[in-house]
Structures are given as C-alpha cells and as structure tokens.
TrEMBL record:
Pathway: Cofactor biosynthesis; ubiquinone biosynthesis [regulation]. It comes from Alteromonas pelagimontana. This is Probable protein kinase UbiB. The active site is at 285 (proton acceptor). Is probably a protein kinase regulator of UbiI activity which is involved in aerobic coenzyme Q (ubiquinone) biosynthesis. It is an enzyme of class 2 (transferase).
Length: 551
C-alpha cells in the first residue's frame, strides 16, 4: 500500500512538472538517472505557470499536502508573489465534491427526509471548498437565521490514513539515517500531526472547540466567534451562524473601507498571545482562508474566525518556559534564553551556556528594532536551524502546532501592516501575564481560586486537628511496641538460624558415622536429632515470617 501511494505521489509530481523546478545541480546523479528511466510519465501542464502547477499537484495529492500548501501561502517573504498567490487558492478554493452527495450526507446525518424540513433555503452551489470539507449556505426555519452547513468530504479518512502511513515510513527512515534524526524526532512530529488531522475529521469535536473559543472571547472587541447550533451537529455535519466579513487576504477591500491596519495587525498579535497564555487553548489553523474582518467599525476592526477543527493546548510547564523565553528574548537577555533552554531540557545539560548565548545573540540581535518588512525571516530561520543543529537542540513535538500558528500570525502581520513592530507589540502583554503568574497578585488569585475547596473543608479542621494530635500523643508508645516486635522478630530469626546450623551438623554426622562401622543406633539418633532441629528451625522462621507480614 505504501509503495503504491509513493508511486502515485511521484507520478503526480512528475505529471505536473515539479521536477523541472529543481535545478539539475541540486539533484544527485541517481535522481537524474531515475527521472530519465521513468520516461512514460510526462509533464501534462507545460503551458501553466509554476505556481499553478504546484497548486494543482498539491490539490491532487489530498488534504495532508493541501495543508502544507496553505501554510506556505502565508509566507510571502519565502516565496515569489506569483507562487504565493496561487497557493492561496488552497485556502478555500479546492475542487468541490458533488452537491447531490453533500445533500445526501446532510439528510442521512440529521435524519431528514427532505432538507426543507430544517431549512427554508439551501444553496446547492458550495460557498467554499477546502481540503477536509465544503460549506453550503442555507437558512434555518428556526429564527429565520442565515447559516452555513459544513459537510465532511466522503471517504476522506482513507486518503489521510494512506498518507499518514507513508509519512510514518519516511519519518522512521529519517530517524534512522539522518545525522540529526534523533534530535529532530520526526516520528513524534508525525504522530502529533496525525492527531491534529484526525481530530479535524470529527465535526462534533470542532463544534465543541468553537463553543469554547466563543466563551473565551465573549464580548471581545478583538475577535468574534460565530454561534454554533450544536443540536444540528454530527460527526460529519456542522451548522454554524453565517458571518459577513472581508477575507483577511483582501487588502484592497480592507483599504477601501479605511480599515485601521495598524490596529488590526496589533490585535492579531494580541489575540494569539491571549489564546496561548491566558486560555492555553488556541486556534491552530489561522491561515487567511479562516480569518475575516468585520465590516462594522473599520476604525476599531474586529477579527472573525471560522474552522475550529485544529486547536492547540499547552501545559503549565511549557507555557511558563515559553513566556519566560519570550520576555528574555524581547529584553535581549540572551543569557537567560540559553539557560532556560538548558533548564527545560531542550538542549543537552552539558551544553556550554556561553557559546550558546553567543550563537543566539548572533542570530537575533540584527532583527531587533526592525519592522517586519525589513526582516528576512528566510535567513533568520536558516540561521536558527543551523544553531539548533550545532547545539543538538531537541525538537518539541507538543510545540509544533504553536510554531505553525506563530508563522501564520507573523505572515498575516507582514501582509496587513509591514511596519508592525512585533516585539514591542507582544512584550507588554507577556509582561502583564507574567506579573499575574508571579508575586502577590498571583498568590491572591490562587487563594481565591482554592477558596471554595478550603471553605468546604474548614468545618472538618477541628476534628482533623484533634485526631492528628492524638496520633502524635500515641506515637512514642507505637514506636516502643514496634521496636519490641522488631527485637522479637530478630530473636526468632537468630534461633531459626541456630537450629538450622545444629540440624545440619547432626545430619552430616549421621551420614559420616556408618563409615566407622558403629552401631546403627548412633547415626539413627543423630539423624533424628538433626531432623528435629530442622523442623524447629522451619517453624520459627515460618512464625517469624508471619509476624513480619502482620507487622
């Protein structure tokens, strides 16, 4: 199965001429030889531009590859504009599956004979189509509310499972054969990626994620989450309030309504850090196809987010280390950054902190006090990767989603307001969060949080205190009794040992006496005495063992 899928992937790449985009000098002779041997697979898209060919190829390969293309589409600093523009079509313009099939899935999942039982209107033409699902516009009878109906692509799980098997095979090979295989932990990264993809295939989980995010940002001026109609949600169908906004990638429309782009970019950073550090629950699929801007109050712009299939969480330890790293980084305290990496186990314990500090300073110092437009993140990422490899920095699979989301946010900031000072925007928020986690305010907050538990246990405190004092009072007597029992056990054990030695001596004597032609009564008597001593030894040792168990 894996070999078949690998052949299919190579076939798609060759049919779209993607091998022609790689200069010959970058390919080993073996790769060039193999390409010539597969002469029957020809480029069928010679007249199309490179960006269009890449987009069509990724779309043909399925959701795992489309997700990769979506992330690349936000990195306009790493890709030529014509390729980035084509990849952006993967965000919501993937080829749809037949509308009749979608309607049948909706009826079966919701137990409807006809769609008109639930909807006063239903638009067969998809409103948007992505890698995992497609969306249809509709109107509910209930409240005459405009909604969208999200329908999972049929048999999508089989395609994802096949691709994940192949990724596991490749990851295992990388782990074994790459010099950095153990440090990069490719198998763990693929496991984490598989978990997020499988979660995205359950629209019941997505609806729950959306309701959690809506509760977290209730009344927020920065982010609006549409209402989800949980009564009509199933594992492959979800119904949600229809929103009307401007896609975040439509800069011309945002400028036409005089949107405050600086505030919009800063709020993107605020929303990200709020989700991560306040809620420990963040939208982890924030590509431009899932983000809109409200048309109300362009001078005070508000984001609208959709598609909650992929969310990320952080435990307290990772969140604390990340916050401290960010703050130390913003303060240019590279020594602390290096020390935090060593303390958290992200680099080996024997790492030379002085050398590590100097390497981090070399990469990061040139990018401070610069707006996003003047930072070459391609060069920065390359230097960071080389630094990580040099110091054997271990990849943290649990942070892969966060890193991907941070790339999305940085890409959106570059798109919206290239003059954004990312460091100065994020630093006050993180300092405020750390202040709430450490010191008097944090202590008061924890006391307030635990107050219901303490108030419930407070009436029992006098009885618990009295019982504790009684136990302390009885402790000397208990220790004395325990000591006496221990002495008795040791005495029993010593007696058992002595009887065993005496018994062995008499048994040995009983075996030797016949050699001296003595009367049979002497060895018989010796044997009986030895056997008796052994029986006594066994009884005492058995009695000692029982007492020890009781004790």
């Amino acid at each position: 199965m894996r070999i078949v899928r690998l052949y299919q992937i190579n076939k798609v790449l060759l049919q779209h001429g993607l091998d022609e985009l790689v200069p010959d000098r970058w390919l080993p002779w073996s790769a060039r030889f193999m390409r010539k041997t597969i002469f029957w697979i020809q480029n069928k898209h010679k007249n199309k531009a490179a960006g269009e060919r890449i987009t069509l190829a990724l779309q043909s390969l399925g959701p795992v590859f489309i997700k990769f293309g979506q992330m690349l589409s936000t990195r306009r600093d790493l890709l030529p504009p014509e390729i980035a523009n084509e990849l952006a079509k993967l965000q919501d313009k993937v080829a749809p599956f037949p509308s009749e099939q979608a309607q049948q899935i909706i009826k079966q999942s919701l137990g409807l004979t006809e769609l008109s039982e639930l909807f006063s209107e239903f638009h067969p033409e998809p409103l948007a189509s992505a890698s995992i699902a497609q969306v249809h516009a509709a109107r509910l009878h209930q409240g005459d509310q405009d909604v969208v109906v999200k329908v999972l692509r049929p048999d999508i799980r089989k395609t994802i499972d096949a691709d994940m098997e192949l990724l596991f095979t490749l990851a295992t090979l990388l782990h074994k054969w790459l010099p950095d295989g153990k440090r990069l932990r490719p198998v763990e990264v693929v496991i984490e990626y598989q978990r997020t993809l499988v979660d995205e295939l359950d629209l019941m989980r997505e609806s729950a994620n959306g309701m959690q995010l809506k509760r977290n940002f209730e009344g927020s001026e920065a982010l609006y989450i549409p209402q989800i109609y949980s009564d009509y949600c199933r594992h492959n169908v979800m119904i949600m309030e229809r929103i009307y906004g401007i896609p975040i990638s439509n800069i011309d429309a945002l400028m036409a309504q005089n949107t405050n782009m600086k505030t919009l970019a800063e709020r993107g950073v605020e929303v990200f850090f709020t989700q991560v550090f306040r809620d420990s629950f963040f939208h982890a699929d924030m590509h431009p196809g899932n983000i809109f801007v409200s048309t109300e109050h362009p001078d005070n712009p508000q984001y609208i987010a959709i598609d909650f299939g992929i969310v990320g969480t952080l435990n307290k330890e990772d969140k604390r280390y990340l916050a401290e790293n960010f703050i130390a980084f913003f303060n240019r305290d590279y020594r602390k950054v290096a020390q935090l990496h060593a303390d958290s186990g992200w680099v080996p314990g024997d790492t030379n902190i002085d050398d590590f500090e100097m390497a981090i300073r070399t990469v990061c110092e040139p990018i401070f006090q610069k707006p996003l437009a003047e930072i070459s993140f391609g060069n920065v990422l390359l230097q960071l990767f080389n630094t990580a490899r040099r110091f054997n920095m271990v990849v943290q699979p649990q942070l892969v989603l966060l890193q991907k989301t941070l790339l999305y946010i940085e890409g959106l900031g570059r798109l919206l307001y290239p003059q954004l000072d990312l460091w100065q925007t994020a630093k006050p928020f993180l300092e405020k969060w750390m202040d709430e986690q450490i010191g008097v305010r944090a202590m008061v907050g924890k006391i307030r949080q635990n107050l219901p538990f303490w108030s419930e246990k407070l009436p029992d405190m006098p009885d618990l205190l009295h019982d504790g004092l009684q136990q302390v009072k009885r402790m000397p007597l208990q220790h004395l009794v325990a000591h006496q029992q221990m002495v008795e056990l040791q005495s029993q054990g010593m007696k058992a040992t002595h009887y065993g030695i005496v018994g062995a001596t008499f048994i040995l004597l009983a075996a030797i006496l016949p050699l001296y032609q003595m009367h049979w009564a002497f060895p018989a008597t010796s044997g009986i005495i030895g056997l008796g001593c052994w029986i006594s030894s066994w009884r005492k040792s058995h009695s000692s063992g029982l007492q020890e168990k009781v004790f």
